[in-house]
Structures are given as C-alpha cells and as structure tokens.
Amino acid sequence: LRPHAGALSEDSKRRLETNPLRIFDSKDESDRRLCADAPKPIDFLSDDARAHFDAVKGGLDRLGVPYRIDPLLVRGLDYYTRTVFELVGSHGLGSQSTVVGGGRYDGLVAELGGRPTPAVGFAGGIERLILVMRALGLAAPAVKPALMLIGADEAGAARCAQLAFALRQDRVGVEVDLRGRSVKAQMRHA
C-alpha cells in the first residue's frame, strides 16, 4: 500500500506505519478500493499457519458448518494470532449483520505476564443475537449437559466433536473434552 499512501484516508495513513493490516478493515470507500487490488495476507501464510488454517477448515467441513473465507477480514485488536472469524446473520440485521467476532490469541496471556496459553475467544452483540433468534423463531435453550462423549485418541476426539454437534442441533446437552486429556481424566471429569 506504500506506493498509494497519498490516496489513503488520514486514518489509514497512520495505520500504514503502526498496523498496516488494519487498513483492510477501513470503512473508507477509496481505502477499500485500494485494498481490493492489494496482496492478501492469506496468500503469505507460513507453512505452520497454513497447516493450522487447513485444520480449522477441516474441522468445519467435518461438522458440515458452512463458511466463507474473507481475505480482507481483520480484527480490530492487535493481540489476535492465526485465524479470526465473524458469525454473520442475514435475518433482519441489514448492514449490521455481524453477530459474533473473534479469533485466536495464543500470545495474550504471556504478554500479560502469564504462562504461554493457547486461547480462542469471541464477543457478540446480544441485541443482534436476539434479533436473529426472533427472526428464526428460536428461544434460548435451557439445557444442561445430559451426556459426555469421550474420545480415546485424536480420531475419537474428532468423532466426538461431530456427534456432539449433531446432538446439539437436536437440543441435547452434550459435553466433550477440548483439552486433549487422557481417557482417565475425561472419565473423572464426567
């Protein structure tokens, strides 16, 4: 974007020096036109980042969760690492269609003085979620976990995630291990 710095909005000119990826998040129409033709971060992933991204997509595919890759999506906070996401609704939200946004932030806990801790998080607009639920005729579930699915290995854990996803669609409360604990530790937790 440097060769086009003069055409950027004032906000994006500042970001060019401090956090150029945030320019992809600009709402300024001329910035958006410039970004449409700019190289995309997704085309420059390291081997490790590409493997992680492929694993995320593979997990969504196994669960049958539809997704769309937005090469211009960035989160507004600098602590995010790897994959970021938005859940977008189309039911009565108009231009304010993002219901939830988040991503991975594996370095945040260490940055704050703690032990390195892998993490993923999100924030959502409760008002937007309520609008979507009303449009779909849904009520908030009042379901406590009725079962815990336990996988003995990586393939078993993946199958547990698939089964839990399907059962939750039928409003069955299901818990699965997300920490990679041993079968014994999972049984103790259950």
Annotation field: number of helices: 7
The largest sheet has its strands arranged as 1-2-3
Strand content: 5-15%
The dominant shape is globular
**How is the biggest beta sheet arranged?**
3 strands, antiparallel
Secondary structure category: alpha+beta
Ranges where pLDDT stays below 50 over 5 or more residues in a row are none
Mean pLDDT reading: 85
Helix content: 25-40%
Question: How many DSSP E strands?
Answer: 5
Radius of gyration: 20 Å
Order of helices and strands: HHHEEHEHEHEH
- What distance lies between the first and last C-alpha atoms, to the nearest angstrom? 53 Å
Features:
3-stranded antiparallel beta sheet, 38% helix
Fold and architecture overview:
The protein is α+β, with helices and mostly antiparallel strands. 38% of the residues lie in helices and 14% in strands. The protein has 7 helices and 5 strands, in the order αααββαβαβαβα. The protein has helices at residues 10-18, 29-37, 47-63, 108-111, 126-136, 154-169, 183-189, and strands spanning 81-88, 98-104, 120-124, 147-149, 174-176. The strands form 2 sheets. It has a 3-stranded antiparallel beta sheet. A two-stranded parallel ribbon has the order 4-5. β4 (147-149), α6 and β5 form a beta-alpha-beta unit. The protein is globular. 9% of the residues are buried. The model has no long low-confidence stretch (mean pLDDT 85).
State the gist of this model:
The protein is α+β, with helices and mostly antiparallel strands and 190 residues long.
Q: What does the secondary structure layout of this molecule look like, with pairings?
A:
Blueprint lengths: L9 H9 L10 H9 L9 H17 L17 E8 L9 E7 L3 H4 L8 E5 L1 H11 L10 E3 L4 H16 L4 E3 L6 H7 L1
Parallel strand pairs: 4-5
Antiparallel strand pairs: 1-2, 2-3
